[in-house]
TrEMBL record:
<dbReference type="Pfam" id="PF01794">
    <property type="entry name" value="Ferric_reduct"/>
</dbReference>
<dbReference type="Pfam" id="PF08022">
    <property type="entry name" value="FAD_binding_8"/>
</dbReference>
<dbReference type="Pfam" id="PF08030">
    <property type="entry name" value="NAD_binding_6"/>
</dbReference>
<feature type="transmembrane region" description="Helical">
    <location>
        <begin position="110"/>
        <end position="133"/>
    </location>
</feature>
<feature type="transmembrane region" description="Helical">
    <location>
        <begin position="378"/>
        <end position="396"/>
    </location>
</feature>
<keyword id="KW-0812">Transmembrane</keyword>
<feature type="transmembrane region" description="Helical">
    <location>
        <begin position="465"/>
        <end position="489"/>
    </location>
</feature>
<feature type="transmembrane region" description="Helical">
    <location>
        <begin position="343"/>
        <end position="362"/>
    </location>
</feature>
<dbReference type="InterPro" id="IPR013121">
    <property type="entry name" value="Fe_red_NAD-bd_6"/>
</dbReference>
<protein>
    <submittedName>
        <fullName>Ferric reductase, putative</fullName>
    </submittedName>
</protein>
<dbReference type="InterPro" id="IPR017938">
    <property type="entry name" value="Riboflavin_synthase-like_b-brl"/>
</dbReference>
<keyword id="KW-1133">Transmembrane helix</keyword>
<dbReference type="InterPro" id="IPR013130">
    <property type="entry name" value="Fe3_Rdtase_TM_dom"/>
</dbReference>
<keyword id="KW-0560">Oxidoreductase</keyword>
<dbReference type="InterPro" id="IPR017927">
    <property type="entry name" value="FAD-bd_FR_type"/>
</dbReference>
<dbReference type="InterPro" id="IPR013112">
    <property type="entry name" value="FAD-bd_8"/>
</dbReference>
<feature type="transmembrane region" description="Helical">
    <location>
        <begin position="304"/>
        <end position="322"/>
    </location>
</feature>
Length: 797
């Protein structure tokens, strides 16, 4: 009896369960630590492979024999391939492993020492590369090498590869030093945060924390800085060499003196002083802007088009968005679910790209060969330039925290459609580029052997080692960014898609810079914005995170409450969450559902998406009681803050788990007396409603503004619980009981929006929707019919 009693005692069972849960989390943490060390080992091996590849590539005669062209062998080519493919991925694996190790063991001296060591090694490698290989160009910082009397060529001749190595050295110095300093800066901030504690005032409320005048001033400052960068870099492209093999100081100085002319005989007979960029029938032609005898800016039409596009875009949007009327004008919805700003941007981009391609296909004189070039070669080269400019443009919407998003007022998730369109444009232009070259090979009798042959046999390409590398990069693009980017594959295997996407980008970027003449002139602006975004994400994702609470509601929603050192967010923004115990490399986006809480904590509600999924495994782990021991890493916040002060009425339309941003915004608006809010929440499953009972109880306060909540429980699934309908109206404490109305019916979104708007002028009304696409589409139509402003949150990536 006694033995039986103790075996079945709830107290003993609970203790045994807690011990089992702790053991489960401990075993998961051990696995995560093993994976972290494995990631570091793979990264170190990849670093070694990249170094060996660079050494083998350096054996090529192009780096040792003066005036030698591009000679290469199979061995040196595969050295270049190893260096190109492994360099960036090596750091990704190394940093991911070290970051996870520090997150799992935040107070471990050894783990933090590894992070400092990685930072020092990265900085040291960058400085070494710049000092050894970049020295010939860095002695005048490249852009100032414009005096041919000072920077003269070696009378004995110099290897062509000196320019290539100079570019590698400069790129290493800029990129690796920036990465290393960013890591070192974060290490120091984390040390201070852990010494002082992570607690702080984390949650800010948009314009209530930053005055409107200050937001406008910051907006203008960012616009000015970006305008200066685009303008300055655009000027540099007008006199620097278009290919990297002449990027030595003497090559830059000589190129800065070259003038454009339409005299064919002059540029043919004296190509070192004159160039003929266009054909005789050109619509657009290059003009000279002489600054001095040593510096002539050649105003290439393609460069002028591209940088004028960027400069006018930044200037126009910056000026228009300085006031409320301008901001609302750009955000106003038009046909097709696009805003006016998006429509204008699409038209302006299409106009630039069309003129850009017209110049290359109709006007440009490729290699002074307009009399001898065949049509396939002309089309191949023109499509290649088109692919490069589209590749540059797609980096802008791909940046999560881009300064361009802050200026335009867009966000990463809302701009992904543009990234996809530009991405498939790159694939189409690249495919056309390759097909036209294959036709050219066929005309010359070298097809199909020259599709991939080392070395090539086509006369004009037999010394070009970049073509084989670019061919491999192109086919990698088609697979990783074409096939795996298709919605069914992307959403089912997102992490596989993401890291293949990243690998393809890391391989393609240097391949394009090696291969495409003039390619760097268009690729660098977009690449720079994307690189700065990666630096910011690298720093933000390494902040100390304190997990306060983990709980499961209604057996389907996991709630995580946490503090992040130094993070500030506004209602409606979201974060990316990583839990090493579940996956070392998976980062999942979740909207912050935090409201007016009093403990400086952030909250996310995570819906279980099924057994075996990341969200499903998290729910089971937290449900078993092991959630409190989990390790969190957080990157964010992402998304543009809502400017609530620009409206008198905000109508929130939520569907299912889409309540998360709406709950946060509604709780915030309840604390204001100058804005009224209405929340319409449509649910098919009662358990989601029950999951938010405690959240509303903890975060909602009574406000002066007239506000109300309507909950519609629609039939479906396993039927609806009557308890869920009244759950939000019966919680004790300062909750929403007086303003909640619940219905067992499907809502008419149009009628609800019209009723909520009341007699308020449509220009002062914002409809904010988050949920299934059908719900958001209905809300968009209703808002447009009413004449109100509309904003939707992206539900699926």
């Amino acid at each position: 009896m006694t033995s039986h009693f103790f075996e079945s005692s709830p107290l003993i069972v609970d203790v045994q369960r807690q011990q089992s849960d702790v053991a489960t989390v401990a075993s998961l943490r051990k696995r995560a630590l093993v994976k972290a060390w494995g990631s570091m080992f793979v990264g170190a091996a990849a670093c070694a492979g990249a170094g060996v590849g660079l050494g083998i590539w350096h054996e090529s005669s192009v780096f040792h024999t003066p005036n030698y062209t591009y000679g290469y062998t199979e061995r040196t080519f595969f050295g270049l391939l190893a260096f190109t493919a492994l360099s960036a991925m090596a750091f990704t694996w190394l940093y991911s492993g070290v970051r996870s190790l520090v997150a799992l063991c935040p107070r471990s001296i050894g783990a933090n020492f590894l992070l400092v060591l990685l930072s020092a090694g990265t900085i040291g490698t960058g400085i070494l590369g710049g000092a050894v290989w970049g020295k010939p160009t860095l002695k005048c910082f490249a852009v100032f090498c414009v005096n041919a009397d000072i920077y003269q060529p070696d009378p004995n001749g110099s290897p062509t590869g000196v320019g290539w190595l100079a570019v590698v050295g400069i790129a290493a110095l800029i990129a690796l030093s920036s990465i290393g300093l960013s890591i070192l800066h974060r290490v120091s901030l984390n040390a201070v945060a852990r010494a002082c504690g992570n607690r702080g005032d984390n949650f800010e409320y948009g314009s209530t924390s930053i005055p409107s005048s200050s937001q406008t001033a910051l907006h203008l400052l960012l616009s000015t800085l970006l305008f200066a960068f685009f303008g300055g870099f655009g000027l540099v492209t007008l006199y620097l060499p278009d290919t990297f093999q002449t990027f030595g100081a003497d090559g830059i100085a000589a190129n800065a003196m070259v003038e454009a002319t339409d005299n064919i005989a002059l540029c043919y007979n004296n190509s070192s002083q004159y160039t003929c960029p266009e054909v005789s029938t050109a619509t657009f032609s290059t003009t000279n802007w002489r600054w001095s005898t040593n510096l002539v800016l050649r105003l290439y039409p393609s460069n002028v088009m591209f940088y004028l596009y960027l400069l006018t875009l930044v200037a126009f949007v910056a000026l228009v968005r300085c006031n409320r009327r301008g901001r609302l004008f750009l955000k106003k919805q038009v046909a097709g679910g696009f805003s006016r700003g998006e429509a204008l941007l699409a038209v302006w981009t299409l106009a630039m790209v069309s003129l850009f391609f017209f110049y290359w296909i109709h006007d440009h004189n490729f290699n002074f060969g307009f009399l001898t070039l065949t049509k396939p070669e002309y089309w191949a080269r023109s499509c290649g330039q088109l692919a490069v400019v589209l590749l540059s443009l797609l980096f802008f919407p791909a940046s999560r925290h881009s300064v361009l998003h802050a200026i335009i007022g867009s966000s990463w998730e809302a701009s992904l459609w543009a990234h996809r369109v530009l991405g498939y444009g790159v694939l189409a232009a690249t495919f056309a580029h390759m097909v036209c070259w294959y036709r050219f090979y066929d005309i010359n009798g070298t097809f199909p052997q020259d599709v991939f042959h080392l070395p090539m046999t086509t006369p004009i390409d037999d010394d070009n080692f970049t073509i084989a590398l670019s061919t491999l990069a192109a086919w990698t693009l088609f697979l990783c960014m074409g096939v795996f980017a298709l919605a069914p594959i992307r959403r089912k295997f997102f992490e596989l898609f993401y890291y293949l996407h990243l690998f393809a980008a890391y391989l393609t970027i240097p391949a394009v810079l090696w291969h495409a003449t003039s390619g760097w002139e268009y690729l660098i602006p977009g690449l720079t914005v994307w690189f700065m975004d990666r630096m910011l994400r690298l720093s933000r994702s390494s902040r100390p995170v304190e997990l306060i609470d983990a709980s499961v509601h209604a057996d389907c929603v996991t709630e995580l409450r946490f503090r992040v050192s130094g993070m500030k967010a506004s209602p409606g923004q979201y974060v990316f969450v990583n839990i090493p115990e579940l996956s070392l490399f998976e980062w999942h986006p979740f909207t912050l559902s935090t409201g007016n809480n009093n403990d400086d904590a952030f909250t996310v509600h995570i819906r279980d998406m099924g057994a075996g999924t990341w969200t499903g495994r998290l729910l089971q782990l937290v449900k078993a009681g092991g959630g409190h021991s989990l390790t969190l890493s957080v990157d964010g916040p992402c998304g543009q803050p809502l400017r609530a002060e620009e409206f008198k009425k905000i109508i929130l339309i939520a569907g299912g788990i889409g309540i998360t941003p709406c709950a946060s915004i509604y709780a915030h608006l309840k604390s204001r007396d100058d804005i009224s809010a209405s929340l319409v929440w449509a649910l098919r499953e009662s358990d989601v409603a029950q999951a938010f009972v405690h959240h509303f109880a903890r975060n909602s306060v009574k406000g002066v503004g007239a506000s109300n909540v309507k909950i519609f429980l629609t039939s479906g699934g396993g039927g609806m619980s009557a308890h869920a309908a009244s759950a939000l109206t019966t919680v004790d404490g300062p909750v929403l009981s007086e303003e909640v109305q619940s219905y067992r019916a499907r809502p008419s979104i149009t009628k609800e929006i019209e009723a909520a708007a009341g007699g308020i002028h449509p220009d002062d009304v914002l409809v904010f929707a988050c949920g299934p696409e059908t719900l958001m589409a209905e809300a968009a139509v209703a808002a447009r019919q009413l004449g109100a402003h509309f904003h939707k949150e992206t539900f699926l990536l």
